[in-house]
Amino acid sequence: MMTPRPEHKDVDAYIAAAPKRVQPILRQVRRTIRKAAPEAKETISYRIPAYVLNGPLVYFAAFPDHISLYPAPRGAAEFKQ
Known about the structure:
Layout: H1 11-17, H2 23-36, E1 41-45, E2 48-52, E3 56-62, E4 67-71
Antiparallel strand pairs: 1-2, 2-3, 3-4
């Protein structure tokens, strides 16, 4: 059985709870998303950082051995390839 992820009140708290060695990478991912979509609302969804702009846009998450980026616009033509 998987251990449930802790809940964080915001993205700052999520990054602060991550291992110190990955925090700079998470901050860079955050900056990149905010630069690409400055109007997107930053939130926590599914217990991970999420960005919403006319619906879900992108999520990211830190794991013990990797960081994942989840683009959310399912069915968008740009993601077909």
